């Protein structure tokens, strides 16, 4: 091979490598474009969909707090898994609809806000009977509840109650 032929071969090799190598590397990239990818995919689950046409599924893909799709683990992983997608394998556990509280008493919310909070931690402050008494006294003062309006300084017993209504 002559010097000129060698240089032409070298140029050809460099040019070929600069075209072929990026193409081959891009074909190795896994996943979908980030714009189309889910943030999280729950896989290998027993998903209860509450949808008569598809009562159950194996996976749920989620992006920006919204469900993108429900289906098989294989399909959703192929269609929605990007490089930054978090995969949560539920190992056959059940996933139910209602990412917000599925059992709520929201109709009582305004009424409950005016009640004394005598619940235990972490919901309320009460850890003992003296705590209950303190919370009730504070609530009585805060709400300006007059004595005799459902409150008493004496313990209510069946005998005391009968005397007060007679």
Characterise the protein shown here.
By secondary structure, the chain is an alpha/beta fold. It has three domains: 1-30; 40-95, Urease, subunit C, domain 1, CATH 2.30.40.10; 106-152, no CATH class. It is built from five helices and seven strands; from the N terminus they run αβββββαββααα. It has helices spanning 3-28, 73-80, 109-112, 129-143, 158-165, and strands at 40-43, 46-48, 56-57, 59-63, 66-71, 86-89, 94-95. The chain has a four-stranded mixed β-sheet, with helices on one face. The radius of gyration is 34 Å and the shape is elongated. The model is unreliable at 12-18 and 20-29 (pLDDT under 50).
From the coordinates shown, what is the CATH architecture of the largest domain?
Roll
Helical coverage, percent range: 25-40%
Gyration radius, in Å:
34 Å
CATH superfamily of the largest domain: Urease, subunit C, domain 1
Strand line-up across the major sheet: 5-4-1-6
Distance between the termini: 124 Å
CATH fold-level assignment of the largest domain: Urease, subunit C, domain 1
At the first level of CATH, the class of the largest domain is Mainly Beta
Strand percent estimate: 15-25%
